[in-house]
Model the fold of this input.
Amino acid sequence: EAQVTQNPRYLITVTGKKLTVTCSQNMNHEYMSWYRQDPGLGLRQIYYSMNVEVTDKGDVPEGYKVSRKEKRNFPLILESPSPNQTSLYFCASSSPIRDRGPYEQYFGPGTRLTVT
Amino acid sequence: GENVEQHPSTLSVQEGDSAVIKCTYSDSASNYFPWYKQELGKRPQLIIDIRSNVGEKKDQRIAVTLNKTAKHFSLHITETQPEDSAVYFCAASRYNFNKFYFGSGTKLNVKP
Done:
């Protein structure tokens, strides 16, 4: 089954304790992205990756890191989480079509993070 | 960067009526406009998209229109059903740029 998976689905942590949210897709997609969703603000892009070892900042990258060492995985790292990073996080992947640009993004199930 | 504004934030319609959600964007270089539906507690899912070389696109009860000159695009749902109740997000992006900018969402409630 084609899917995007995220782990953990729920996480409660304390300020300053490093954490990693994993994202994996089995569709051989080149493009992967991380979003955070906050009430009234919609989805905001954190980082995206066009392919292995190619990553770039989205709209709200401060306080986050990513890596893309393998095509299927795109972990989101919070080196020193703060309460303002409490949010619902979504990973997404897609396979851009040459000369046609971005295509349908498939979203993971989401990770609800609470930082106290 | 791009700024996408979405209206209304909530919309309540009677089953069978039509619903229209509108979005505006600021970057004239944006050329890809997807719409996502997110049911309560679920992940966003693409329902329709439109590219800047097209003015309108339909898929059964759903249609999207794009006015490049005015920089706005709209989602039209006809013959609404209770299962259409969800939050809808518009977004804007540019080819080969791959940044996505989402609107703030519209909560649609279809009353039986």
User: Anything to note?
Assistant: The longest strand of chain A covers residues 42-51.
